[in-house]
Amino acid sequence: MYESLALYIGGEFLSGNGRHEQEIINPATFDVLGHLPHATKADLDCALDTALCAFKTWRLVPPQERSRLLRRAAQLLRERAPEIARNMTLDEGKPIREATGEVLSSADNADWHAEECRRIYGRIIPGKKPAVRQMVVREPVGVCAAFTPWNFPIGQAIRKVSAALGAGCTIILKGAEECPSAIVAMARAFHDAGIPRGVLNIVWGIPADISEYLISSSAVRKVSFTGSVAVGKHLAAMAGAQMKRMTMELGGHAPVLVFDDADIDQAAGMLSHLKHRNAGQICISPSRFFIHERVYDRFLARYIEATRQIRIGNGLDKDVDMGPLALQRRIDAMEQFVEDARQRGAQIALGGARVDRHGYFFQPTVLTDIPAKTRILHEEPFGPITPIVRFGNLEEVIAEANSLPYGLASYIFTRSLANAAHTSDSLEAGMVYINQVSITPEAPFGGVKDSGIGSEGGSETFEGYLSTKYIMQGY
Fold first, then answer.
1. Which is the catalytic residue, given 116, 283, 428, 456?
2. What's the pLDDT score for residue 119?
3. Distant-in-sequence, close-in-space partners of 67: CB < 8 Å, separation ≥ 6
4. What is the pLDDT of residue 147?
5. Does 283 participate in catalysis according to the annotation?
6. Is residue 249 annotated as a catalytic residue, yes or no?
7. In this structure, which topology does domain 254-441 adopt according to CATH?
8. CA–CA distance from 290 to each of 141, 203, 217 (Å)?
9. Which pLDDT score is estimated for 282?
C-alpha cells in the first residue's frame, strides 16, 4: 500500500482533519495515489515552537547519543527500503532499482553523519601568559529550516536532516509536495528510532508561503535549500536580510569534455547511463557535451547506439532503464527545448518527442549541429536531452564550459594526466569527475557561482550548522 501521508510536528503524525489536501499523482499512470495535508499557520507555529523548545535540550545531548539515534534510523531505512523505494517510484517515477539505491545511499549518509558528528572538535590556543587559557569551541546554530526537491526526495532530505541532528540542531523540513512518500517514511524511521519530540518536524504546503513564513521567523537561524537558481536566490535574499546562515545547492548545466585520447566506448556508455538516470532530472546530470573533433563521429555513433538501448516504461517494471518525467511541466519544457533547437537549425539525431503512451514519458533525445545561441546550450534542461558540440582548441572549449553562470558539476574523459590536471584546475565547478563518477557521503557536494553556497557531505557537512565561539579565561 502507498504511504499514509501526514505532517510530522512535535513528535506526532498529523493527517487531514480539515486541512487542505493535495492529490498525489503517479506520473506513469496518472492514478491518484493519496492526499497530502498542507500545514496551517497554527501547524507552522507549533513546528517553530516545538523545534525551538527541543533545541534547548537536544543541543546538550552527547554526540555519542546523537550518533546512536542516526544509526538506528539508518538501520530502519535499510529494513524498509523495498517499501520506501516502491512508493518513491509510484510518486516520482524513477525505476525501482534507482529508487532502492537512493534509499540505501540515504541510510549510508545517516551512518556517515553518525560517525562524523562524534568528531566535531574545538581546539586549544596557547596563551601568551602562563595564567591564560584560550579555547575555540563549536556550537549548534539552532533551529534550521530546510527545503528539498522532488528529484531525490529522500536522498536530498537525509543530507540536511543528518547534518542538522548530528550537529545538535533541530530542524523543520519541507519536502516536495509532488512526491512526499519517502520523506514521510524517513520521519517514521526517525520516530521509531526514538527521536525526541520536536527535534525533527515535517511540513507541507504552498512552497512560497511555507518558505517565507519559516525564514522570517526569529526562531530559525539556518536555512538550507536545494532547488532552482531563481528560487534559491530569492530564499537567500530573505535569509541574508536577517543574517541567517545558509547552504544553497542550486542548479547546474554540467559541461562534459571528451578528449581525442579518451576511451570512447567507455565514455559514451558511461555518459549515456549518467545522462538518462532519473530521466535526466538530476542537477549534476551531464548536459553540455563537448567532443574533440577527431573523435566526434565515433563518439556520436557510440552514444546514440547506447542510448537506443534504453528501455522506457513504468519504473516498477524490473527491466526499465528510464521512467517518466515527474511532472507535466517537464514534458512542456522538453518540447520547448527541442522546438527552439529545430527552429535555429540544429539536427535531431535521435528522439525529439513524447513517447506515445500514457504518462509523462519523453524520448531520449540527441541534438547536433547546434547554433551557439540555442537555448539548450544556455539553460539547464533537467531532462533526457543531450546537445553534442565539436571542439578543437582546448582553451576555447574551457572558456565555453565556463561561460555560463552555473558551476556545479563537470566531467572530463582523457587518458592524459596533463589534460586532466590542466582542465580540472581550469573548470569553474564545485565538482570535477575524471573518467569515473561516484557520489559518496565522504565527499563534499556543492557548487560555485550561481550553483550555490556551501557544501553538503564530506568533512565540510557540519560547517553551516555550527557556530564558532572563542573563550579566553584568566586564572
1. 283
2. 95
3. 114, 115, 117, 118, 166
4. 98
5. yes
6. yes
7. Aldehyde Dehydrogenase; Chain A, domain 2 (3.40.309)
8. 43, 42, 46
9. 97
**CATH superfamily for domain 7-250+451-474:** Aldehyde Dehydrogenase; Chain A, domain 1 (3.40.605.10)
Q: For residue 242, what pLDDT is reported? A: 95
pLDDT value, residue 392:
97
Which helix (H) or strand (E) segment is 25 a member of? strand 21-25
Count of CB atoms situated within 10 Å of the CB of 65:
11
Catalytic residue among 178, 249, 400, 428: 249
Distance CA 37, CA 81 (A): 24
What is the per-residue pLDDT across 307-327, written as a single tens digit (0 to 9) for each? 999 999 999 998 999 999 999
Q: Are 103 and 77 in contact (CB under 8 A)?
A: yes
Residue-level pLDDT at 83 = 98
Distance CA 92, CA 180 (A): 9
Name the residue ranges covered by the structural domains of the chain.
7-250+451-474, 254-441
The pLDDT value recorded for residue 460 is 93
The answer to whether residues 231 and 155 touch, using CB atoms and an 8 Å cutoff, is: no
233 and 388 in contact (C-beta within 8 Å)?
Answer: no
pTM above 0.90? yes
Distance CA 257, CA 103 (A): 31
The low-confidence residues of the chain, meaning pLDDT below 50, are none
Q: Measure CA of the first residue to CA of the last residue in the chain; give whole Å.
A: 65
CA distance 200 to 164: 9
